[in-house]
Amino acid sequence: MAPALEVADIFRRHGEAFRQAHAGHLGCVERRVMGAITACRTAALGGHVEQCDDCGTTRIAYNSCRNRHCPKCQGLARVQWLAERQAELLPVPYFHVVFTLPAPVGEIAFQNKAAVYAILLRTAAETLTTIAADPRHLGAKLGMTMVLHTWGQTLQHHPHVHCVVPGGGPSFDGTRWVACRTGFFLPVRVLSRLFRRLFLRELENAFGAGRLRFFGKLGNLAKPQAFARRLGDLRRLNWVVYAKPPFGGPEQVLAYLGRYTHRVAIANSRLLSLADGKVRFTWKDYRQGGITKVMTLDADEFIRRFLLHALPDGFHRIRHYGFLANGDRADNVALCQRLLDGCDTGACEPADNRSKGDRPLTTDFAICPDCGGTMRQIAAVPRSCNPQPFSCDTS
Question: Could you tell me the pTM of the whole model?
Answer without folding.
Answer: 0.86
